[in-house]
Design goal:
The protein is an all-alpha fold. The protein is built from ten helices and no strands. The protein is globular, with a radius of gyration of 17 Å.
């Protein structure tokens, strides 16, 4: 943590970084992309979510891929830009972007579940850990064939891996992001426990 003097000087930058990250993260790309494609409001189909998984339910894989890409980049871009002022502002911007995606003010604070943006923030802060996340996701998906479980397991192990390699500050941030991600997946967790969650390919 910064000492009291540096905190007095730095907090306006931290506040701006948080607000900037939130504004960037709250852009509902899934909603924007599907509307531009003439498919209406993606919140009216499937789970009502604005993320790539629900966009895929429109039957347009290309739109789902674009949503996944942009939802990830809205986590990466604020981190890289805020990082120009220092590593602390990068962390705070990443937190802001993730919160913005989960709880966008423009949509009544009802946003996505955060997996793509989680990966995007991780890409901006510690890109090699994205490989770890992907490997865990793939391994869990191969074994279980549950996309949601794969994301939950990968996000759970990511802060552990960060702590293991000595990135304690990053580990703390991603522990918080993981908690938020799990909260947003509460319905998936209930279905997993009941054996009612849809498997990959169905």
């Amino acid at each position: 943590m910064p000492d009291p003097i540096s905190w007095e000087l730095a907090w306006p930058y931290y506040l701006v970084a948080l607000a900037f990250g939130y504004a960037f993260g709250s852009i509902p790309f899934g909603l924007i992309i599907t509307r531009f494609a003439g498919l209406g409001d993606v919140r009216s189909i499937g789970s009502g979510n604005i993320g790539a998984t629900n966009v895929l339910r429109t039957g347009r894989k290309s739109l789902a891929a674009l949503t996944l890409l942009f939802d990830a980049l809205k986590g990466t871009a604020p981190v890289l830009l805020a990082g120009l002022w220092g590593p602390e502002t990068a962390l705070i911007a990443g937190l802001g972007a993730f919160i913005g995606h989960l709880f966008p003010v423009w949509l009544g604070f009802k946003g996505g579940k955060g997996v793509a943006t989680y990966i995007g923030v991780l890409l901006g802060l510690k890109f090699l850990l994205v490989v770890f996340f992907g490997m865990v996701w793939i391994a869990t998906a191969v074994i279980s064939r549950y996309s949601s479980l794969s994301a939950l397991v990968a996000s759970l192990l990511t802060p552990v891996a960060l702590y293991w390699i000595g990135e304690h500050q990053l580990a703390e941030l991603f522990a918080l992001l993981t908690c938020l991600l799990w909260i947003k997946h509460h319905a998936n967790i209930r279905r997993l426990l009941k054996g009612e969650e849809s498997r990959i390919g169905k």
